[in-house]
Amino acid sequence: MDAPSTSSSYDTIANIIRDSHATRVVVLTGAGISTSAGIPDFRTPSTGLYAKLARLKHLPYPEAIFSYHYFKHSPELFYAIADVRHPHNLKPTISHAFLALLAKKNLLHMVVTQNIDGLESAAGVPPEKVFACHGSWDTQRCITCKEPFPDDRMKEAITQGIVPRCLATDACDGIVKPDIVLFGEPLREGFEEKAEHKVVEADLVFVMGTSLKVHPFANLPSLACAGVPRVLINREKVGDLGNRKEDLCLLGNCDEEVRKLADALGWKKELEKLWEEAKTEHVKGNETDGEEYTVRLDAAIDKLAGMLDESLSISKGHKSMLERHLTEKLARLPKPPERDEK
Ligand code: CNA
């Protein structure tokens, strides 16, 4: 980890906010703001999903489970771990509550999140202030005819780990997919208006809990106008954050850094209260504890490793077909932005 942030960084940011220099705050978030809720991120070595999935020897590469082309070929894998990836009854973190507090104080212009867990809304950020550019688990549809699929049937399929099939007509029988954006799929509509334009309009930008490895999201911080402070809250330096003279880097765990910042702002009590209320409001009934979630995920991946035999492994022929498909797609650029890894 890089050098810890100095107390003057928190005071500098607090002054920018408190003295009303910033009233259009844009927050760009990734999986790191939800890891303390129990949802592993993708890329943290050993605890991230890619590290956990690396033991599935028959996967061509760990990210394949989140690729659209692989999903079309082998949706069983996606659904085998869907239940433990679904954010059922997980609690928002204090970092999510910080976003809600910015909204409550009329400072929040937009949260643009890559996360699909819905925890910003669960913490109380108004829906019009959240743009989940990689979608969410809230709705689902057939990938062939695009017909929406009923929530109760989806819940059943996820719980049982079976691939749901379209009910629209007997002829369709297409695979149903939650409306989350897999690698290789077009982004949700509105990226230009609700993400890019908002960053251009921002007078303060936070970048929290993201490796900035997924494009086009990764380009967003660079759209902040010259002179606009960009604050990175993350365990490590990412992208070009830190390169501009007005950049500030709070390197550490999001929740701890947010607490220190709230303290500098004189918002600590209010933040803790808002967080407590959000947890009580959101989690009704069977609350899932973060540790329990991780244990269940590990068990599901172990089970999957056992299930995965040669019949599910991607054949050499299929792999070269996918590669050909990708090459052809790239050759057809330019086209609307897709969620892509760099
Ligand atoms: P990533 O590539 O796994 O990067 C996460 C980043 O956050 C890394 O730089 C970590 O060092 C950092 N980090 C992790 N935990 C913390 C913490 N507690 N405090 C501070 N920093 C931390 O994830 P990205 O979001 O950058 O990648 C984008 C993918 C991840 C999106 O497409 C998401 O859909 C996908 N994803 C989402 C979730 C979710 O919805 N909660 C979970 C896992 C993956």
Bound compounds, each kind once, are: carba-nicotinamide-adenine-dinucleotide
Give the % helix: 25-40%
Regions with little confidence, pLDDT below 50 for 5+ residues: none
Q: Which strand order spans the largest sheet, edge to edge or round the barrel?
A: 3-2-1-6-8-9
Calculate Rg over CA atoms.
21 Å
Could you tell me the strand content as a percent range? 5-15%
C-alpha termini separation: 23 Å
Query: What value does the average pLDDT take?
Result: 88
Helix- and strand-based class?
Answer: alpha/beta
Structural write-up:
Helices cover 38% and strands 13% of the residues. It is an alpha/beta fold and 342 residues long. Strand 2, helix 7 (119-123) and strand 3 form a beta-alpha-beta unit. The protein is globular and about 60 Å long. Bound molecules: carba-nicotinamide-adenine-dinucleotide (CNA).
